[in-house]
């Protein structure tokens, strides 16, 4: 008897995938976006959606479940971490005083990810709010070559870095989800 969940997928047509292509909300009809900015935004949107999909249908205990000791990583921690980094990216492009940390000192985003439904609701709310605020701040700067903030980050660099951050954490979310209930990613 093993305490490891059996591997499974919600897909029927392609059982090795997370979702059948026709049911995957990340798939869109038509051609890909025109232009570099629209392409980068499309990739970011899809990775954000992927992270939410990896957390879908889990309760507070499952979302807060740690990977392997001594790691404090959990799906809830990833949601909180990405809210924190969205806020931090706004600090990179601002000339003003930095916004305060959402969750406190280093690694508090992961360490404070506890199995409480109110914490889960707050994490989703924080993430949505911080994503919208960062998106709004960058929408004022459609020129990908424009340099922002005291360190002169190019808008393009910031968008690519955000995609990289979500992509990396979606890979971790795949493994976390499989450990929780056996559901595998694609």
UniProtKB/TrEMBL annotation:
What Pfam families does the record tag this protein with? Answer: MST
Identification of the protein by name:
DinB family protein
What InterPro entries has UniProt attached to this entry?
DinB/YfiT-like, MST-like
Q: Where is this region: Disordered?
A: 1-36
Query: What ranges does the record list as Polar residues composition bias?
Result: 1-12
Cited SUPFAM superfamilies: DinB/YfiT-like putative metalloenzymes
UniProt superkingdom: Bacteria
């Amino acid at each position: 008897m093993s305490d490891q969940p059996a591997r499974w997928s919600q897909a029927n047509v392609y059982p090795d995938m997370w979702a059948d292509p026709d049911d995957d909300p990340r798939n869109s009809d038509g051609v890909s976006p025109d232009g570099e900015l629209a392409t980068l935004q499309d990739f970011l949107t899809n990775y954000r959606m992927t992270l939410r999909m990896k957390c879908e249908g889990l309760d507070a205990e499952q979302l807060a479940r740690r990977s392997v000791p001594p790691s404090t990583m959990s799906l809830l921690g990833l949601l909180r971490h990405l809210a924190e980094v969205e806020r931090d990216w706004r600090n990179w492009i601002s000339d003003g005083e930095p916004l305060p940390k959402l969750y406190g000192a280093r690694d508090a985003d992961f360490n404070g990810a506890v199995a409480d439904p109110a914490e889960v609701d707050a994490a989703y709310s924080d993430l949505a709010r911080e994503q919208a605020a960062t998106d709004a701040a960058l929408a004022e700067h459609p020129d990908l070559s424009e340099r922002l903030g005291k360190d002169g980050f190019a808008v393009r660099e910031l968008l690519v870095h955000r995609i990289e951050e979500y992509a990396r954490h979606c890979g971790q979310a795949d493994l976390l989800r499989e450990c929780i209930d056996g559901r595998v990613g694609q």
